[in-house]
TrEMBL record:
Belongs to the glycosyltransferase group 1 family. Glycosyltransferase 4 subfamily. Residues 172-348 form the Glycosyl transferase family domain. CDD domains: GT4_PimA-like (cd03801). InterPro entries: Glyco_trans_1 (IPR001296), Glyco_trans_4-like_N (IPR028098). SUPFAM superfamilies: UDP-Glycosyltransferase/glycogen phosphorylase. Residues 9-161 form the Glycosyltransferase subfamily 4-like N-terminal domain. Keywords: Glycosyltransferase, Transferase. It comes from the Bacteria. This is Glycosyltransferase family 4 protein. It comes from Billgrantia bachuensis.
Amino acid sequence: MHICLSDGWGGLEMYPARIIPELQRQGWEPHGLALAGSRVAASLSAAGIEPLTMASRGRALLQVGRVLAYLKHHAVGVLHCHKSSDLRLGALLASLRPGLKLFFTDHMGVTRPKKDLYHRWAYGRVTRLFAISEATRARNLAAFPLPAERIRRLYLGVDLSPYVPRLDEAARESLRRELVLAPDQVAIGLPGRLTPGKGQALWLEGLARLRAIAPDLAWHGVLIGGLTAREGSDEAYVGRLRERVAELGLEKDVTFTGFRSDLPRLFEALDIVCVPSRNEAFGLTVVEAMAAGKAIVGANSGAIPELLEADCGRLAASEEPQAWAEAMAELGRDAVLRRRLGQAARRRAERQFDVRAHVRALTDEYAGIVGHAVGT
């Protein structure tokens, strides 16, 4: 059972529904526990399972007997939590029903020590804690009251198949026109939630400098992401981004797409994908762009340098717009280089980030099989 009692919507909340189809293909029977009416609950339903739902996190604790009865009825032996606040329920269930295995994935990257009495109790019942990158594992080792052997690095995985190009030239050009792209323009995209940590403001400054250092380059920026809180974005920040676009004179040079459910197809319309996130715990957007075979510029901070090897893309300092402008200019001027980097990125995604391998490693842990290449 995957437990995610969150009313937000980001990579953490999307994770259970992302892997459920592959869990089923590999012979497991997944269940879910989510907040009633949440996007998590809706995503689990869309993935093919009807989750057990609770009105609130507090209600879930008060109805622990109901959850235990559900676990017994469905012979559930593994719990997997994705928010640290959900460990209260997970640890309580594991305490009340000996034999339950409890797993926790730290999707966010812990930022402060968690070694007080409560956290020693809760994490003491965790069978395995998964870090989603080496960068976060280093922080986990320092912050959590667990021995090193119970903290394992397990990179996230994606289903690579949707990212294989499908559009013919006419459909691709039609999509580019929808994004306000002229035929001769290099399309520079930035997908992700519109929140300060994702670096959109830095990217806009980089685009303004790109215009200055490469006046001969025809380009257009495509900012992909929801514009409302319901879609996971910071509405005040979105307003500031629009104001900055106007101040920089980029109104005709940048398209705000709003939320799009067709990201794999949007990648086909892009030439360069930028991921300027600061201190990213993993960098799922980087992997998705790699799967799509795109030339990528990523921030040189957090886990992104682990994902984006030198032959797969370029790294730029997360606080230096000039570095971003120079990287975008280099890739924008060289279509052959973009193609080579994109092909190398796709091959790395196939080797390292396929959801099938991720789920095999995960279920080996569920089953207590030691020795799979999960990381140390």
